[in-house]
Amino acid sequence: VIELKGLPADCAQRRGGGGCAHCQARPFSVCASVPDADLHRLDALAETVTLAPGQALFREGDPAAHLFNLTSGSVRTYRLLADGRRHIVGFLFAGDFIGLDPAETYPLSAEAIEPTTVCRFRKAEYRALMAERRELETALLARAGDELAAARKQMLLLARKTALERVASFLLDLPGADPLRPGPEGVVRLPMTRSEMADYLGLTLETVSRTLTRLKRGGLIRQMSLTEMRVEKPEALRALADGDA
Amino acid sequence: VIELKGLPADCAQRRGGGGCAHCQARPFSVCASVPDADLHRLDALAETVTLAPGQALFREGDPAAHLFNLTSGSVRTYRLLADGRRHIVGFLFAGDFIGLDPAETYPLSAEAIEPTTVCRFRKAEYRALMAERRELETALLARAGDELAAARKQMLLLARKTALERVASFLLDLPGADPLRPGPEGVVRLPMTRSEMADYLGLTLETVSRTLTRLKRGGLIRQMSLTEMRVEKPEALRALADGDA
DNA sequence: CGTTCTCTTGACCAGCATCAAAATTTGTGG
DNA sequence: CCACAAATTTTGATGCTGGTCAAGAGAACG
C-alpha cells in the first residue's frame, strides 16, 4: 500500500529576498543558465516547498500547474499499472528539474523519500520567463537531451542486463559515486527502500537484496549502514555494469 | 552479424527548389512549426539522403555533424553491449526527428530497415536557424518532451510487463494502428524482423514469434503477410497491453 | 530451382519470481 | 533507556516465465 498524503495548500512560501543567490543546487541545475544579474527574476517567481518523507509533490493525472527544481533531499517518480504493478521512473536529487514534459496533466506521480525541499514555479510564469530569457529555454532543451540519454541508458539496462549488472549499474549511477557531488568519496547513499530499487530496476525486492549480498560477499561493496554503501572496487563494479563478459 | 555498410559521400544532394513545400512528412514533423513563408530557409539548408535497406545513417561514436528528419521509410536505432547483446532503442518513421541529443558524438547507431529517405541538416546551420526562428526551438523542446514520455512508456513496458503485454503494446504503438497515418485502417506494417522486435522489447526472437502465434490463435490479430498484421480486436489488445488483469 | 535467410515450433533449462519465515532495524509509549 | 510492535531486510525452498539449443518450414533471392 502506498502513502497518499497530499500537499497542504499552505506548504509553500513565496520568498521575498534572494534565495537563488545562495542556492546549493544552482550549480547543478538549469538555473545556472540565468546570469547572476537576472537572478531576482527567478526569485520573484520561486516558491519554496518543504516535504516530509512520503509526501506527494503531485500525482499522475493532476493538472500540471507547476514546474519544480529539487534543492535538497530526494524524490521518487512512478507510474502504476491497473493491477498495482509499480514502475519507478526515476530518483531525483538536488539540481534535478521536474516538468520537462509539456503535457497538461502530470504523466506520473512524485513523492519525497526523505525530508526534501523543492523550488516551485507556476508553469505559465516560468514559460513567460523562458520566452524572455532565451538561455533558459536552451538550457532546458539541453537538459531534456540529457534526460533522454539517461532514459535510453535505463532502457538498455531493463531490456538486456542481468540482475547483477542492473544493481551494479544502479550503484554507479547514484550521485555519490559521482566525484562532483558532496559527501565522502565512493560512499553511495541509498535513501530508497529495496522495494523501490526493485521497481526501478525491473526486479523484485528479494532479488535486489540477494544481489547486494552477492556484491558484499564478493568484496565489491561494503555496507556502512542500511542507507550507505561504500564502493570498494569501482573498476570491478564498472566491468559488471557494462557487461564486459 | 550486423550489416556494416557506410554512407557514401555522394549519397546526398543539396536541393535548389522548394522540396519542403510538398514534403509528405511535414505535417508530422517539427518542420510544421516553420511558417510557409519561411520554408525557403529550411530548403536552403536541407539535403536529401536516400538509403538502401541495412545502410547506416550514422554509427555510435561518430562525430554528430548532422540532424535528420525522416521523410519516408523506416529506421532502427540501437546500441550494443560489450558481449554483443543488442538493444534497439527505437523504430523511426516518417516525421520523426533524429538529433535531439546535444552530445558531440552520436550516442547510438541508426540504420535503414527498408528503402528510406531522410532530410539532413548540418548541425551548426540548423542551430543558427533555431537561434533565429524561435518557434523551431520551441517545437524541438515539445518534441523532446514527447520523446521523453515515449521513453518512459517503454521503460514501464520493459520493467514490468509480460511478453504478451509487451507484444500487444508494440502492435498498438506502431503507426498504422494510428488512424491519423496513411494506410488501411487497423493494418499494422512490420518492416522489421522478429529479432529486431525482440531487441526492442527485451525478449528473444523465439518468444516474439511464439507470442504472435498466441495472438493469432486467439483471433486478436490476423497475419496478412509476413510484414503486415491486421488488428481484429483492438479493445482486447488494448486491455492486454495495459495489463487490465 | 537451389541457396540462404527468417520464421515457427519443440524440448529442455536457468534466472528470477513467488511464497514463506527468520533476522534486523525502526518507531512508539511507558 | 527499555520493551514491544511494526516495518524492512535477509535468507531459504520451490515454481514459472521466458531463454537456450535444435530442427524443420516458409520466404526471398539469385
Sum this structure up briefly.
The structure is a homodimer of 245-residue chains. Chain A is an alpha+beta fold and 245 residues long. Helices cover 34% and strands 24% of the residues of chain A.
Protein architecture, described:
- The structure is a homodimer of 245-residue chains.
- Chain A is α+β, with helices and mostly antiparallel strands and 245 residues long.
- Helix content of chain A is 34%, strand content 24%.
- Chain A contains seven helices and twelve strands.
- In chain A, strand 5 and strand 6 form a beta hairpin.
- The longest helix of chain A has 27 residues, at 134-160.
- In chain A, 42% of the residues are buried.
- Residues 1-5 of chain A have low confidence and may be disordered.
- Chain A binds chain B through residues 79, 81-83, 85-87, 89, 100-103, 107-108, 134, 137-138, 140-142, 144-145, 147-149, 151-152, 154-156, 158-161, 199-202, 242-245, and chain B through 79, 81-83, 85-87, 89, 100-103, 107-108, 134, 137-138, 140-142, 144-149, 151-152, 154-156, 158-161, 199-202, 242-245.
- Chain A binds a DNA duplex (30 and 30 nucleotides) through residues 162-163, 193-195, 203-207, 209-210, 212-213, 226.
- Quaternary structure state of the chains depicted: homodimer
Order of strands in the sheet with most strands of chain A: 1-2-9-4-7
Terminal CA distance of chain A reads 39 Å
Query: Per DSSP, what share of the residues of chain A sits in E-state strands of 2 or more residues?
Result: 15-25%
The assigned structural class of chain A equals alpha+beta
- Average per-residue pLDDT of chain A, rounded, comes to 89
Q: Kindly state the percentage of residues in helix of chain A.
A: 25-40%
Largest interface in this structure:
A-B, 42 and 43 residues
The strand count of chain A comes to 12
What's the story with the biggest beta sheet of chain A?
Answer: 5 strands, antiparallel
Element string of chain A (H = helix, E = strand): EHEEEEEEEEHHHEHHEEH
Note the total helix count of chain A.
7
Radius of gyration of chain A (CA) equals 19 Å
Task: Indicate the overall shape of chain A.
Answer: globular
Low-confidence stretches of chain A: 1-5
